[in-house]
Amino acid sequence: MASLKFPADLDREVRDQRRARLAPGYAVGVTEEMIHAQVHSFYARVREDAELGAIFNRRIADWDAHLAKLCDFWSSVLLMTGRFHGAPMRAHLQVAEINAPLFERWLGLWADTAQKVCPPEAALLFTARARTIASSLQLGIAASRGEAV
Ligand code: HEM
Q1: Whose C-alpha lies nearest to ligand 1, atom 37?
Q2: pLDDT one-digit tens code per residue, 84-113
Q3: Does any ligand 1 atom lie closer than 6 A to the CB of residue 91?
Q4: For 28-144, which CATH class?
């Protein structure tokens, strides 16, 4: 039997569909499955990385919860789902050893993973957005440390 929908449900569905079409990931075919693959593949590599691994492994006690949070983050960024409710700037201000070379290493691994996991146009979007967000995190960190930017 076809399920009946109340007007409020229909409104929400129409709004969700409109928002999805406006999202940056829509035009290049980003899906939740792609985000899951990118995030999980990337952090599997991060955990093994000689420089980044130790930083994460010291702080992340529950990797399943962290990966779910990061999928929500990228879903909000690329598909505008609004699922992420964290505070990335505050989280990174607490990582005392974070610096510019580590950001470059992070971005290199991220881009390399995207090329392996995503179709080319989507990989470019994942990479460009990560670079923009990394720049703003770095600006905030530098300002909080009183460094010249
Ligand atoms: C050198 C580069 C980076 C390092 C070492 C790093 C490290 C970390 C660590 C240790 C956490 C967990 C903090 C905690 O829960 O105590 C974290 C959280 C997070 N990171 Fe990064 N990160 C880096 C770059 C980035 C970049 C470039 C992005 C986005 C493009 C990003 C997105 C996030 C997000 C969304 C969270 C969750 C924040 C929250 O809990 O609200 N990170 N990162």
Answers
A1: 88
A2: 999 999 999 999 999 999 999 999 999 999
A3: yes
A4: mainly alpha
